Amino acid sequence: MGGPSQQTVSNQQGLVTAETNLANYLMSQGQQDTAQRNALIAPATSFYSSIASGSPKTAMAAAAPLITNINQGTEATKEAIYDATSPGAARDALLAENARSGSTNVASALNSTYLNSFGQLANIGSGFGSFAMGETGQAGSGFGTAGNINQSVAQMQEASSPWSFLGQLAGAGGEAAGGLLGNAGLFAGKAAAAA
After folding, report:
1. Cα–Cα distance measured from residue 65 to residue 115, given in angstroms and rounded to the nearest whole number
2. Angstrom distances, CA of residue 23 to CA of 33, 54, 176
3. DSSP state of 161
4. Using CA atoms, how far apart are residues 97 and 69, in angstroms rounded to an integer?
5. pTM here?
6. What percent of the chain has pLDDT over 90?
7. How far apart are alpha carbons 114 and 59 in whole angstroms?
8. Are 98 and 78 in contact, with CB atoms under 8 Å apart?
9. Is the Cβ–Cβ distance between 70 and 106 less than 8 Å?
10. Which DSSP letter does residue 195 get?
11. Whether the Cβ atoms of residue 22 and residue 141 lie closer than 8 Å to each other
């Protein structure tokens, strides 16, 4: 009986090894990329989680850099008003408007950040899930391909075995005998029912 050559089997086994190595690499790379992605998104996740927490103290602490920038702008405008206007009702009105505008800008920034935080957290979670699943899926596909190649090699080797023919012959004989006995039982049952 002819079967696959040793070179064919060796080539197939080489493919199995290559696919398994690639799958292991992708799995390892996926784990490293996931760890790196976690580190990169941790500040954004922490920020948006603090904003979305509902705690004014936590939200203010998270938004402190944003609020500081607004307050610095408000303070710079206040200094410009003092430098550009003389004391009196006009200066007082401008200073009051500047203070109100600064408070409004802080409140607006906090509200906007709060409302956007939920979508940002959802995007981070969705992106993370897709990223991790993609690399894990590629690794799983590599392991599956290696398994299919390995199964193909085993089937080729089994088909080339002299015992394979005898096993197939015995299996076919067993199926035929089972079929005949089954049919004999069916006919006997019909004959008994007819009698």
Report:
1. 18
2. 15, 44, 44
3. S
4. 18
5. 0.49
6. 21
7. 8
8. yes
9. yes
10. -
11. no
Predicted local confidence at residue 52, as pLDDT = 87
Other CB atoms within a 10 A radius of the CB of residue 147 amount to 14
- The answer to whether 157 and 3 have CB atoms below 8 angstroms apart is yes
Of 79, 50, 78, the residue nearest 65 (C-alpha): 50
**pLDDT for the residue 182:** 46
**Tokens of residue 172, six digits:** 């076919």
For residues 41 and 164, the answer to whether their CB atoms sit within 8 Å is no
> Per this entry, what is the length of the chain?
195
Low-confidence ranges of the chain (pLDDT < 70): 1-4, 128-133, 135-136, 139, 142-143, 145-195
Q: Give the side-chain half-sphere CA count within 13 A for 5.
A: 3
The DSSP secondary structure of 68-119, one letter per residue, reads HHHHHHHHHHHHHHHHHS-SSHHHHHHHHHHHHHHHHHHHHHHHHHHHHHHH
Tokens for 116, please give them: 């956007």
Instruction: Extract the tokens encoding 138.
Output: 């590629």
